[in-house]
Amino acid sequence: QNVTQTVEEEKPKPLTVQEIKQKIEKYNAKVTNCLLMKLNDDGTYTGFIKVHLKLRRPVTVPAGIRPQSIYDALKEVNLANMTDKRTSFYLPLDAIKQLHISSTTTVSEVIQGLLKKFMVVDNPQKFALFKEMRKDGQVLFQKLPLTDYPLYLRLLAGPDTDVLSFVLKENETGEVEWDAFSIPELQNFLMILDKEEKDKIQQVQRKYEKFKQRLQQTLKEARGKPG
Q: Tell me: the pLDDT tens digits for 164-206?
């Protein structure tokens, strides 16, 4: 059972540099791959997080643009700016993206980084980052504030993703400011909603058509029986 929590937990007290060093050492001792955390001289640290993409609705991307190459990434080439044409498609459900981030990287920056990697041009306000936890047989989701630091949460929880994992989902809180979207984006939302409505109607029609066929078959078989 999936449960989404909106109540914010009490934030842990900030760690000292010595406490961070000790936690990083314990963290790295539990890591079973090469995704270690590294402490910098200034007290910040870097490491990896994995984000599960659980997007139920299509996203908007540039039309006819090739995937980003390593050269583009190194040169920070934004391929999305090379065309004004847009198209929509569904990202693979529950795909996983690995990010190398710093302890100063915020939730907002993680969301923007994910959208850039997939060349998604939708407004970042449409999305939210959640932390997923398992407790008493339930899967609990808690929306993270945009100013939180995901790597700090990863450090506190340890490397086990069964204890804590990150999920990118649609922002369903109703807090989206529609005035912030452009007219083409709003028109695209209407097209998506229209498609979802038609798909839902077809699903209901198919359901009752199958039910109707079973009833007709049962009546036909009953008429063929004596008495």
A: 999 999 887 555 556 666 677 677 778 777 887 888 899 899 9
CA distance 123 to 181: 7
| pTM: predicted TM-score of the whole model, two decimal places | 0.64
* CATH number of the structural domain 17-175: 3.10.20.90
Euclidean distance between CA atoms 83 and 210, whole angstroms: 45
CB 132 within 8 A of CB 166: yes
Domain ranges within the chain, ordered by starting residue: 17-175, 179-224
Taking every pair of Cα atoms in the chain, the longest distance, rounded to a whole number of angstroms, is: 91
Name the strand (E) or helix (H) holding 139.
Answer: strand 138-143
Query: What is the Cα–Cα distance from 215 to 213, expressed in whole angstroms?
Result: 5
Q: Give dist(CA 9, CA 25) in Å, integer.
A: 26
Q: How many residues does the chain have?
A: 227
Q: Are strands 2-5 and 38-39 parallel, antiparallel or unpaired?
A: unpaired
| Residue 91 to residue 53: CA distance in whole angstroms | 8
Q: How far apart are alpha carbons 140 and 129 in whole angstroms?
A: 13
The confidence score (pLDDT) of residue 156 equals: 92
User: Taking a C-beta distance cutoff of 8 angstroms, is the pair 110, 51 a contact?
Assistant: yes
